[in-house]
Write a structure and sequence with these properties.
Distance between the termini: 21 Å
Number of strands: 4
Oligomer: single chain
Largest sheet: 2 strands, antiparallel
Shape: globular
Order of helices and strands: EEHHEEH
Strand order of the largest sheet: 1-2
Strand content: 5-15%
Helix content: 25-40%
Structural class: alpha+beta
Amino acid sequence: MCSLQCQVNPESGDPEDELTPDAVEFCRRLGSNATRVSELAGGRDRAIHAAIQDGINRVNEKATSNAQRIQKWIVLDRDFSVTGGELGEWDGIAGSDDEGIFPVSKSHFDPVISHLFSLQCVDIKE
Protein backbone atom coordinates (compact mmCIF):
# COMPACT_ATOMS: atom_id res chain seq x y z
CA MET A 1 0.00 0.00 0.00
CA CYS A 2 1.46 3.30 -1.10
CA SER A 3 0.45 6.58 0.42
CA LEU A 4 1.37 9.94 -1.06
CA GLN A 5 2.67 13.07 0.61
CA CYS A 6 -0.41 15.11 1.35
CA GLN A 7 -1.28 18.16 3.37
CA VAL A 8 -2.22 17.47 7.00
CA ASN A 9 -4.89 19.37 8.91
CA PRO A 10 -2.89 21.15 11.65
CA GLU A 11 -5.74 20.99 14.16
CA SER A 12 -6.92 17.39 13.78
CA GLY A 13 -3.86 15.72 12.25
CA ASP A 14 -6.09 14.22 9.55
CA PRO A 15 -4.59 13.76 6.10
CA GLU A 16 -6.19 15.99 3.48
CA ASP A 17 -6.76 15.38 -0.22
CA GLU A 18 -4.32 18.05 -1.39
CA LEU A 19 -0.78 16.92 -2.25
CA THR A 20 2.25 18.65 -0.73
CA PRO A 21 4.22 21.00 -3.00
CA ASP A 22 7.00 18.39 -3.27
CA ALA A 23 4.50 15.74 -4.38
CA VAL A 24 2.96 18.10 -6.93
CA GLU A 25 6.44 18.87 -8.30
CA PHE A 26 7.17 15.12 -8.54
CA CYS A 27 3.93 14.63 -10.48
CA ARG A 28 4.80 17.49 -12.85
CA ARG A 29 8.22 15.96 -13.60
CA LEU A 30 6.41 12.75 -14.62
CA GLY A 31 3.91 14.56 -16.84
CA SER A 32 0.96 14.51 -14.44
CA ASN A 33 -1.14 17.56 -13.58
CA ALA A 34 -2.49 16.01 -10.37
CA THR A 35 -2.71 18.18 -7.27
CA ARG A 36 -4.90 15.88 -5.15
CA VAL A 37 -4.53 12.36 -3.79
CA SER A 38 -7.96 11.47 -5.18
CA GLU A 39 -6.65 12.12 -8.70
CA LEU A 40 -3.94 9.46 -8.23
CA ALA A 41 -5.45 6.83 -5.93
CA GLY A 42 -6.20 3.40 -7.29
CA GLY A 43 -4.12 3.89 -10.45
CA ARG A 44 -6.23 6.76 -11.83
CA ASP A 45 -3.16 8.54 -13.23
CA ARG A 46 -1.24 6.38 -15.70
CA ALA A 47 2.01 8.40 -15.50
CA ILE A 48 2.26 8.09 -11.72
CA HIS A 49 1.14 4.45 -11.77
CA ALA A 50 3.83 3.63 -14.35
CA ALA A 51 6.53 5.47 -12.38
CA ILE A 52 5.69 3.59 -9.18
CA GLN A 53 5.59 0.28 -11.06
CA ASP A 54 8.99 1.06 -12.61
CA GLY A 55 10.43 1.68 -9.14
CA ILE A 56 8.91 -1.55 -7.84
CA ASN A 57 10.34 -3.46 -10.80
CA ARG A 58 13.83 -2.09 -10.05
CA VAL A 59 13.54 -3.08 -6.38
CA ASN A 60 12.21 -6.53 -7.29
CA GLU A 61 15.18 -7.15 -9.61
CA LYS A 62 17.41 -7.09 -6.52
CA ALA A 63 15.21 -9.47 -4.52
CA THR A 64 16.78 -12.85 -3.84
CA SER A 65 13.45 -14.68 -3.57
CA ASN A 66 9.77 -14.26 -4.44
CA ALA A 67 9.05 -13.69 -0.75
CA GLN A 68 11.02 -10.44 -0.99
CA ARG A 69 9.24 -9.17 -4.09
CA ILE A 70 6.44 -6.64 -4.06
CA GLN A 71 3.70 -8.57 -5.81
CA LYS A 72 0.61 -6.44 -5.19
CA TRP A 73 0.33 -2.74 -4.56
CA ILE A 74 -2.13 0.12 -4.70
CA VAL A 75 -2.03 3.88 -4.17
CA LEU A 76 -4.28 4.63 -1.23
CA ASP A 77 -6.98 7.29 -1.32
CA ARG A 78 -5.69 8.80 1.93
CA ASP A 79 -2.64 8.58 4.13
CA PHE A 80 -2.42 6.60 7.35
CA SER A 81 -3.45 8.51 10.48
CA VAL A 82 -4.21 8.09 14.16
CA THR A 83 -7.81 9.28 13.67
CA GLY A 84 -8.26 6.87 10.77
CA GLY A 85 -7.29 3.98 13.05
CA GLU A 86 -4.19 2.86 11.11
CA LEU A 87 -1.64 4.40 13.51
CA GLY A 88 -1.54 4.47 17.27
CA GLU A 89 -1.43 2.10 20.18
CA TRP A 90 -1.99 -1.60 19.64
CA ASP A 91 -4.49 -3.13 22.05
CA GLY A 92 -3.28 -6.71 21.65
CA ILE A 93 -5.16 -9.60 20.09
CA ALA A 94 -8.59 -8.46 18.98
CA GLY A 95 -9.87 -11.51 17.14
CA SER A 96 -9.11 -15.01 15.97
CA ASP A 97 -9.90 -17.53 13.28
CA ASP A 98 -9.52 -21.27 12.69
CA GLU A 99 -5.87 -20.97 11.65
CA GLY A 100 -4.73 -19.15 14.78
CA ILE A 101 -4.93 -15.82 16.50
CA PHE A 102 -4.34 -12.62 14.55
CA PRO A 103 -4.67 -8.94 15.41
CA VAL A 104 -7.78 -7.41 13.88
CA SER A 105 -7.98 -3.74 13.02
CA LYS A 106 -10.95 -1.77 11.84
CA SER A 107 -9.90 1.02 9.54
CA HIS A 108 -10.77 2.92 6.42
CA PHE A 109 -8.42 0.58 4.51
CA ASP A 110 -10.02 -2.79 5.41
CA PRO A 111 -11.77 -3.06 1.99
CA VAL A 112 -8.49 -2.17 0.22
CA ILE A 113 -6.59 -4.86 2.09
CA SER A 114 -9.29 -7.43 1.30
CA HIS A 115 -9.15 -6.46 -2.37
CA LEU A 116 -5.35 -6.82 -2.51
CA PHE A 117 -5.50 -10.30 -1.01
CA SER A 118 -8.15 -11.33 -3.52
CA LEU A 119 -5.98 -10.46 -6.53
CA GLN A 120 -4.07 -13.08 -8.46
CA CYS A 121 -0.30 -12.58 -8.39
CA VAL A 122 1.22 -12.10 -11.80
CA ASP A 123 4.81 -12.27 -12.99
CA ILE A 124 5.80 -8.61 -13.07
CA LYS A 125 9.01 -9.20 -15.03
CA GLU A 126 7.04 -8.86 -18.27
